[in-house]
Amino acid sequence: MKAAVISRLIRESYADRMEELLIHTGQHYDKNMSELFFREMRIPEPDINLGLGGGTHGAMTGRMLEKLEKILIDSAPEYVLVYGDTNSTLAGALAASKLHIPVAHVEAGLRSFNREMPEEINRVLTDHMADVLFCPTDTAVENLKTEGITKGVHRTGDIMLDASLFYRTLPHSSAVQAPEQFFLATLHRAENTDDPERLRSIVDSLNIFTDLPGILPLHPRTRKMMEAFGLSFASHIKVIDPIGYLDMIDLENRCKFIVTDSGGVQKEAFFFQKPCVTLRDQTEWVETVQSGANQIVGADSSAILDALRNPPMPKEWPNLYGDGTSAESIVEALLNS
User: Range of 304's domain?
Assistant: First the structure.
């Protein structure tokens, strides 16, 4: 989703000044969660698709590193642009830095301060390899400064706000049938899905809360772990297959509030001015919590139920993430670096 915004901008407005080689590692390999995004978000098929999804973190990252190194040697780019905090992000940064190719990191400086999260390790290591760092918030800039990173740092605003503002305007007929009032839930992080006690507590809490029906696009890994632990959702929770981004933001716009363990969905809730209940013990999007729009409840049943019955609501919705022009700022910074 982050790449979609910049790829579209390069092809539409900067094709005479910049060429992009788009590499898809295949980390997100479920058809509904990969091919659908490329088609819906009006970006071309990747120039190279490595198809390397699956396996442990180490095995996946190692395979990516090997393949990406060869591609970078052959293509000799001026920059390697990586996004977010995935294994693909870390592999791309490692491959480039070992070949002395400058690394540019979109969504730099985020910290949850939980080193048990693989994403936290990925984002910290990537930031310390990056030559150009694009930060979505002032907090992200300060996090980098605390770690001694001040060179090449740009406060650009959030690329996902660009995406939200653009894609919500596209004509779209939702494939998801929803009641007039509902809450939206997502659940996929390993800290929740791989821990039977946490997963059971979350599922039981959502099942107990019957004040409002819910819709939950279920991640394949979550479905697998629920089956393994003998868990299921009650009938008032409508469980659906993974959906595309346009359907997702449509549901985010229509729902009463959002329950999630996703970093991206926490932000999108804020973009749509929807209260958010976060099923994690920390968040990298601390501004949403400080503003009163987001409540961190972890997997504690009583905390979850209290938040569901009284969703957080700020006194106002401050401008935390820029004006929706971060993509232009990022591309211009690369051209001028």
Answer: 183-309
- Intervals of the chain under pLDDT 50: none
Q: What is the DSSP string of 125-137?
A: HHHHH-SEEEESS
Helix or strand run (H / E) with residue 217: strand 214-217
Same domain, 25 and 153: yes
What does the alpha-carbon distance between residue 298 and residue 281 come to, in Å, rounded to a whole number?
5
Q: With contact defined as beta carbons under 8 Å apart, do 157 and 321 qualify?
A: yes
Q: Long-range contacts for 140-144 (Cβ within 8 Å, ≥24 apart)?
A: 140/108, 140/109, 140/110, 140/111, 141/109, 142/109, 143/109, 143/110, 143/111, 144/108, 144/109
Task: Check whether residue 243 and residue 116 sit in a common domain.
Answer: no
Per DSSP, 84 falls in state: T
- Residue 212 phi/psi, 5-degree rounding, is -150, 140
The catalytic residues are 188
Residue 34's pLDDT is 59
Considering only CA atoms, which of 321, 331, 284, 285 is closest in space to residue 132?
A: 331
Percent of the chain that is helix, strand, coil (3-state, to 5): 45, 10, 45
Angle made by CA atoms 286, 4, 332, in degrees to the nearest 5: 80
